[in-house]
Amino acid sequence: xxxxxxxxxxxxxxxxxxxxxxxxxxxxxxxxxxxxxxxxxxxxxxxxxxxxxxxxxxxxxxxxxxxxxxxxxxxxxxxxxxxxxxxxxxxxxxxxxxxxxxxxxxxxxxxxxxxxxxxxxxxxxxxxxxxxxxxxxxxxxxxxxxxxxxxxxxxxxxxxxxxxxxxxxxxxxxxxxxxxxxxxxxxxxxxxxxxxxxxxxxxxxxxxxxxxxxxxxxxxxxxxxxxxxxxxxxxxxxxxxxxxxxxxxxxxxxxxxxxxxxxxxxxxxxxxxxxxxxxxxxxxxxxxxxxxxxxxxxxxxxxxxxxxxxxxxxxxxxxxxxxxxxxxxxxxxxxxxxxxxx
Amino acid sequence: xxxxxxxxxxxxxxxxxxxxxxxxxxxxxxxxxxxxxxxxxxxxxxxxxxxxxxxxxxxxxxxxxxxxxxxxxxxxxxxxxxxxxxxxxxxxxxxxxxxxxxxxxxxxxxxxxxxxxxxxxxxxxxxxxxxxxxxxxxxxxxxxxxxxxxxxxxxxxxxxxxxxxxxxxxxxxxxxxxxxxxxxxxxxxxxxxxxxxxxxxxxxxxxxxxxxxxxxxxxxxxxxxxxxxxxxxxxxxxxxxxxxxxxxxxxxxxxxxxxxxxxxxxxxxxxxxxxxxxxxxxxxxxxxxxxxxxxxxxxxxxxxxxxxxxxxxxxxxxxxxxxxxxxxxxxxxxxxxxxxxx
Lengths: 342, 342
What we know:
Two copies of one chain form a homodimer.
Chain A lengths: L6 E5 L3 H12 L3 E6 L10 H4 L10 E2 L4 H8 L3 E4 L5 H13 L3 E4 L12 H13 L3 E4 L2 H14 L4 E12 L4 H7 L6 H6 L9 H13 L3 E12 L4 E3 L4 E3 L4 E12 L4 E9 L8 E9 L2 E6 L3 H11 L1 H6 L3 E2 L19
Parallel strand pairs in A: 1-2, 1-4, 2-3, 4-5, 5-6, 6-15, 7-12
Antiparallel strand pairs in A: 7-13, 8-11, 9-10, 11-12, 13-14
């Protein structure tokens, strides 16, 4: 039970930040600062541009002014929803830690950065400990790539293999995402460019998180980037293009982890331009004794992403200082009351 | 990390006990005693009659000899898989507690007995505290009626209603279960007999457990017992009967809980004789922001039941003394290593 309201700075007021600002308000968290680099948002009221659509008296500042925002806000949490990689969000995490402010981010790598960005993670861990605050990564994968899977696992006698499939419509994420997934390329061009990338995909961190939580040691972990194609022309309205039959409609990132203990984790993240019959899907299969397949059709991904993060705030505040990934935290909770009464 | 093997007595060597004995062996738990009231099992080797089908040198004793089994076994856990209600399993729980042996049971009421059997639960709680041991209830509902649901809940911003549906084939559970569910009765006869029962069904405890774990106060909780019927004749091979069109093929127990905080829990437990198209299903829907429906088709119910209990053993041993229902425990874990190394 916390006596005082949680005081939050939101860093990144894009699509996710705009939902989070409303969630914070509805859970009794006080917004005390807002930062965004987008010129079209700087100077606007964070409440008004959010899905709350109500004036909160908190203007959005450019990251150049982040130092002043932190000095004035007296925040105890900073929510960072800007980019995916630790190198990209390092400065914001460092700024929060230097001010002794707990930080939580949607940046996917922060979910389990210990292998891919060991040095940066350890530097942040040391800094957070020095300033007595906590850093963590949450979002969609905290529940759907993490604790939901370990919950079902707890009903298994023996796990030989965990298969996770997530499919989403890449056309909803702008032209940057289309390019990143090779949409519109020939399969040959895809294989020579996109498929050669060594950049880990989101499910890379998910597999590592699961191994850590389940007590498994990784022997090998590999990533394959496979093109998806279609047998009919697909028109992509948002990009104004047609994808010919047999050309690339998106990508399936497959990360396969072999463990010393035996079980294999195989996670598939498929982002493609949809045909009429495709729907968003989340599916997790545990093969062993027994076999269990858990399916969620059309999950509300943006809401799940934001709610998972906001529901973590009380545990973030209570966690020991340092960079504490959520595999080391208790399972997350749904909070009914205002978060400061949780 | 426990240095020594867990030493377990299994009380109840029926279908579930026979699976559990194998699971214990495969997880490095030592079987040190076995009790069963069934004359056809007494005197036989517990390993040989189990699904392990291997001699373990542990003869099954009648409950009359339970005192001697406990005195000789030097057990630290007793697994009780006999009956459903606390009144029915009270003696075995008391026997374990008096010997300072932690007890865990599949008895459904023990999952959350605080309302339906308050006095007995408190008596057991006091006894367990006196003898420095722990009592709890686990099984299928520990994950599927409990922690799996609270895991998905943690990805919700707002929950208005939780709907849980479990459907199973009553024909697999013997003639006692068929009678209990009114199979073969006319709908009128069902309404005058079965439907008037005040005995809580399994989902009664599930709703109460969820409210406790989610921090909700129950305002009202009601149970309805509804007959299921079919539009074609169904032949029940196991019972050698035909059920005419429109007569009762089984029952749906619906427990509805209204909470002071607003959310409603509605759980449906449907046990019926199957037609060709029916399959076992588990479905949990959270209505609110967002809506999320999690589906598990054809869950391996017996394996899930037994694995959920066995996976709880390390937490049972580590829990504080008393009757500790699992809503007060950490979320359950899958254990890869032998349990005494967990």
